[in-house]
Amino acid sequence: MSLRATVSIRADQVLGTISPHLYGHFAEHLGRCIYDGIWVGEGSPIPNEGGIRLDTVEALRAINAPNVRWPGGCFADDYHWEDGIGPRDRRPRRMNLWWGKEEPNHFGTDEFIRFCRLVNTEPYICMNVGSGTPFEQKSWVEYCNYVGTTHYAELRKANGNAEPHSVTWWSVGNENWGCGGRFQPEEYAREYRRFTCYLRRTSPIPLQLIACGHTTPDWNRRFLTALNCWDLIDHLSIHRYYSRGHQTEFTDDEYYGLYAEASFVDDDIRRTAGALDDIVRGKPIGIILDEWGVWHPQAADGLEQTNTHRDALAAAGVLDTLNRWSSRVTMANLAQTINVLQCLIHTDGERFWKTPTYHVFDLYQAHMGNHAVETLIDAPAVTSTRSDGREMDIPLLSASASVSPDGKRTALTLTNRSLAESMVVKLDWIGIDAPKKVTARVLTADGPDAYNTAEQPETVTARKLKLTAAKAREAVEVPAMGLTVIEARL
Ligand code: AHR
User: What is the whole-number distance in angstroms between the Cα of residue 230 and the centre of ligand 1?
Assistant: First the structure.
């Protein structure tokens, strides 16, 4: 027996525009994310372009990765960017304070920009507030963006980059309430003013300046109240990690419990939006979720974990949430692209394989740049208690829908979270023509604990689904633990 649900696609109710940046990424100098995952060095037998491994580049290009945040994370507030430029054999070797390794500085600003250009993605740089100076950070912007003949612009040219790197996205510190300096919100507001005061004037292109926020009640309110300088801030960032049970050996309750934990993202965004609405005047400030994802306590070294189909489906639910909040959320960055936490890609020397989460990001490309429209969902639910003690109904169907700006294409993502039963989802197309031509793909697995390995890289992978336009006008059957994306031409 199949479950039954209804989704009304209210094309007349536009929620916001789904910036491609909602499907962004994060790569920090920790574990094997940068070294092995991106950087293998020019002499490596692994196919590379100037030291950057090409399998990673191709995979990220294929999903149109819109941005990559770098160099941290906690690493950022102990990173001094001038260590990472110039001849590689002369770069200093430093401690990586937070992640227990030594940093060779072989991958620095110019390598990061080259990586971004190869992937065709936008660089997003996180500055050092905790142990850096305003001059140092201003100089970083000058090195990257200035077109004249100043010391730092000339240094960039001398390092082989005649053209400016033109970096738009800059965040002023990371988790400055913790590893980024242990500031009180009022102290961070003072630092934030001091650091940002010089940045816009340094750059010939407009900058997007991002302040570090927090998910604990009141931090953002206290920070914004103390800041009270809206010309210096464009976005406020928050982070959310979650887990439930063991990474691969979890119970059914823990399977559903992960969706409950992922629902913190919705609360975080709502609370942050409330603080911005109450305090900021005269300017929209975006919300950036620049670290998110599953962080299993069993991760090896605290960082490398097995990413299952369960994790991927939970990510699909978060992307639906981001689509719904697309009028407020300006960027989001899954942690962390390669080999670390809820990565998209694993590497092991020459070996390379994609996680189930990679395929979620592949399927969600269908929404990029579209207008998010309201979806009214009527579906069965299960009860779960979240780690903060809140008992909640977890709908067995997660969905979001979007329409292209020219009104000619619709994208619909439907996740049937049921472990055992397929779901027949009745589709009501409201305020829009029913589709004339559809394509559909589905991501499912034999079990929620399924994952890909170097030997079996396609245990969990997306496949085409046969669906006619006539059928899509009425209903679609989504398999148990299945994510279906329907792209329709109207
Ligand atoms: O992503 C791993 C770490 O988690 C980041 O360095 C830090 O910002 C967060 O606490």
Answer: 27
Contact 374, 62 (CB under 8 A): no
Q: Give the residue numbers marked as catalytic.
A: 175, 291
Q: Contact at 8 Å (CB) between 443 and 359?
A: yes
Q: How far is the CA of 190 from the centre of ligand 1 (A)?
A: 23
Pocket, ligand 1, Cβ cutoff 6 A: 28, 72-74, 174-175, 291, 335-336, 341
- Identify whether the C-beta of residue 322 lies closer than 8 Å to the C-beta of residue 360: no
Token duo for residue 428: 């009501």
Render pLDDT for 422-456 as a digit per residue (tens, 0 to 9).
999 999 999 888 788 999 999 999 999 999 999 99
Residue nearest to ligand 1 atom 4, measured at CA: 73
Atom of ligand 1 nearest to the CA of 72: 6
Give me the residue label for tokens 């006619």.
468
Q: For position 301, what pLDDT does the model report? A: 86
- Residues 268-286 pLDDT 10s: 999 999 999 999 999 999 9
**Atom 3 of ligand 1, nearest CA residue:** 73
Low-confidence ranges of the chain (pLDDT < 70): none
Atom of ligand 1 nearest to the CA of 76: 6
* Ligand 1 site-directed mutation target among 25, 26, 28, most atoms within 8 Å of CB: 28
Q: How far is the CA of 73 from the centre of ligand 1 (A)?
A: 5
Contact 69, 24 (CB under 8 A): yes
